[in-house]
């Protein structure tokens, strides 16, 4: 290959030289234009290839996700995984091909255009400039007079220098153009060759991949044919599908239930809502694992809700076997009872009653109704038996003893919301020790070591509004009465607030039995027999209903005629205030023949030690007898040493400095249950509060002679947290206002009683009420 023109012709700057330069310049301009189009198109192809690779990668990810759907079908998932792995490998080859195209075509040709063709253009501009300078110098030299020797010498020197520069530039320009013309051949051919080699490698790798995949593809093809055949066989088997359709209600019948297996029940029920409309919604219910849950038949999955009450611990967000989120109606069947609904016009209705709520349900047929009633009763029984069996290992003869340094205060469990607790969260072992300690302390209260109703030993349950301990069988009866009569809580499973522990220490089985069995005489009183530890459920139920619902054995207040018949007639009555953390002072009957106790001693049905409760005469000073004051009182046992520490560390009575034996005297004409409750709340006399509640006193009665205040207002005035808690847990309304518009919260805030304020906030007091 030769240069486009020889050097001698370049130095002569002949027309032929100029013509050759012009032809080659046009040729290189055309080549540059075409190569730029190739580079541009290749860039577009590479961008499209990268987009294709991204979309293909996204497709593979989507197919992997789809393969996860068949996780329970190993054959389908294995086939999909094998093919997707091959597809991903082929996608890698596509990525390499696109990358090679960018290198072979775009990079190489762009480099040739930049390094060679643009260099020729730059030299062309310089060559034309030098050529113009030489023409200008030659014109000047031609016009110099020969007589001017100095000018002739100068112009000759300039001509020589300019000609030398022109000739060097012309040689360089021809060299660059010759090199560009030579390189254009192998640059273009080499770029296309590299691109085809990339294609050859791509197809070669693809062929090897397909050869390796061929046995697997054949096997997968056979499996696909087998799947098609299975679907075809299924279609034939279901040709007579309509013959299995029945008009019967498909429910789990009672005779199919196995006593040795956990109770499981499922089916549709109508559920009555708790809103004002009382509408009925059809839901799919499931009874299993000691829980009653339900979910909608269809629809988007929603958040789990707990309709069993806000006081349930670990309210139980759960899922069904199919992974659907469900609504927990009742977290623990041990706290529930089931009974027929007789006050509803709709057919096949029954109620599931818990300490926090009453659920109204309706079955779709009588068979379904009977099956659900039976299943729920059996489920509750199994849950209670399981709990009793577990507790026998935890709190039996080998009950765990409290830690060497037990926490100060009974039942003071660590909760996230306890602002007074600075220690870290208790461990399960510490929590168990606390509950064991709580159980042991509550059992030390007189009468609490036996069930309040049947006398069974080691009770594990309590009625928090009554202040008594119960066995597991009697606790089930109490739950069925409804929370307006009894609110049941476990002594060993539930967490106990400090104020509830204090309340249990101030009451107890002996005190409550002296109230509810005041007139009961074993063997002489009419009515059902007293329950015993081995009594049937029906006997327990009759006894508990007579005792707490009918209140048949509660002694009424003395009437005016009874007071007149006494040897000494009192003109006023009053209730002694409870002393601070010590046993109430007792005064025996006066020697002048004072009134006999209106709450006489109760013969204990369980051969317990007899204790006597009296209405005594006592003066506000030093316990001297008062001849004209009828004092109403229920004796309460003094707290144990550990309980005493709780009472002393609380803010109970923290702002009260009145005389502990202070008595508010009232006229005998006002001796009725509402006023007794009112004065008992003022005197912080928990025994008399319980007695007045047993007499069915109005918990929200407004005293017209005392600015319309309620017993809860008076309990606040007594500066006692326990009296406030006792009234609230028995249904006193927290937002009642007196005639001045003050709520109990207003009074507690004015007295700066933090314990009472916190208690009202816990019971969701309305903070927006203004005077």
UniProtKB/TrEMBL annotation:
Per-repeat ranges for ANK: 707-739, 740-771
Composition skew (Basic and acidic residues), residue ranges: 604-613
Record's compositionally biased regions (Low complexity): 587-603
Residue stretches of biased makeup (Basic residues): 577-586
Residue ranges, annotated region (Disordered): 391-433, 560-622
Keyword line: ANK repeat, Metal-binding, Repeat, Zinc, Zinc-finger
Compositional bias segments (type: Polar residues): 412-432, 562-572
GO terms for MF: GTPase activator activity; zinc ion binding
Residue ranges of domain PH in the record: 262-381
A Pfam entry, by short name: BAR_3
Presence of keyword Nucleotidyltransferase: no
SUPFAM superfamilies, per the entry: Ankyrin repeat (SSF48403), ArfGap/RecO-like zinc finger (SSF57863), BAR/IMD domain-like (SSF103657), PH domain-like (SSF50729)
Domain Arf-GAP: residue ranges: 436-561
InterPro entries assigned: ACAP1/2/3-like (IPR045258), AH/BAR_dom_sf (IPR027267), Ankyrin_rpt (IPR002110), Ankyrin_rpt-contain_sf (IPR036770), ARFGAP/RecO (IPR037278), ArfGAP_dom (IPR001164), ArfGAP_dom_sf (IPR038508), BAR_dom (IPR004148)
Signal peptide: none
Assigned GO CC terms: cytoplasm
Family annotation (PANTHER family): BLOWN FUSE, ISOFORM A-RELATED, CENTAURIN/ARF
Protein name per Swiss-Prot or TrEMBL: Uncharacterized protein
Organism expressing this protein natively: Scylla paramamosain (Mud crab)
Organism lineage: Eukaryota, Metazoa, Ecdysozoa, Arthropoda, Crustacea
